[in-house]
Write a structure and sequence with these properties.
Number of domains: 1
Number of strands: 5
Bound molecules: zinc ion
Radius of gyration: 13 Å
Strand order of the largest sheet: 1-4-5
Structural class: mainly beta
Order of helices and strands: EEEEEH
Shape: globular
Largest sheet: 3 strands, antiparallel
Number of helices: 1
Mean pLDDT: 88
Length: 76
């Protein structure tokens, strides 16, 4: 099990994708993945949380499929 938190969101405003080497912008209304990694959990050796916004183009196919569903609040 990974300690990484993953949430699928709809952008309320445009934001940059944080994946290395990706210069795409997540547009308002686009679905995107937000991942958060706690401090001291590999590969985050810092003392603060890492949070990354991941555009659809950088997601795995599995994430891309999941993120197209309705918000997963409350479970299926
Ligand atoms: Zn990207």
């Amino acid at each position: 099990m990974s300690l990484e938190l993953r949430t699928y969101r709809t952008a309320r405003k445009a934001k940059r994708c944080d994946m290395h080497g990706c210069y795409r912008t997540i547009q308002r209304g686009d679905r995107y993945l937000r991942t958060s990694l706690p401090p001291q959990v590999d590969p985050n050796s810092s003392d603060h949380w890492w949070s990354l916004n991941v555009c659809a183009g950088c997601m795995s196919p599995e994430d891309r499929e999941r993120t197209q569903r309705r918000d997963e609040i409350g479970g299926a």
